[in-house]
Amino acid sequence: AFLCGVVQDIAARHADGRLALFLEGGYDLTGLSRSVRACAQVLTGSVPPPNGGPTEPGRALVDAMRLLQSAWWDV
Question: Cβ contacts of residue 42 below 8 Å, gap of 6+?
């Protein structure tokens, strides 16, 4: 839900609030259903939970995606 809030903020700043989400995976149906519900709640106005801080692998992924997208977006 935290990342959904981050993406929603980015969409508000750079895409007039337009946002598309795509589901992927589905191996853990319980986890998937929780994630979808949490994202839907954020997108309909619930405040996202605070971030506990990125894990090191998560931070590396975010940094790599920022670098990749920097050619098209100022993120």
Answer: 1, 4, 5, 8, 48
> Residues with Cβ < 8 Å from 21, sequence gap 6 or more?
4, 7, 39
* pLDDT of 65 higher than 90: no
Among 28, 21, 25, residue whose Cα is nearest residue 1? 21
What are the structure tokens assigned to 46, written together? 């619930």
Q: Once rounded to an integer, what is the mean pLDDT over residues 50-66?
A: 73
Task: State the Cα–Cα distance between residues 5 and 11, nearest whole angstrom.
Answer: 10
pLDDT at 7 over 70: yes
Q: 70 by DSSP, 3-state: which?
A: coil
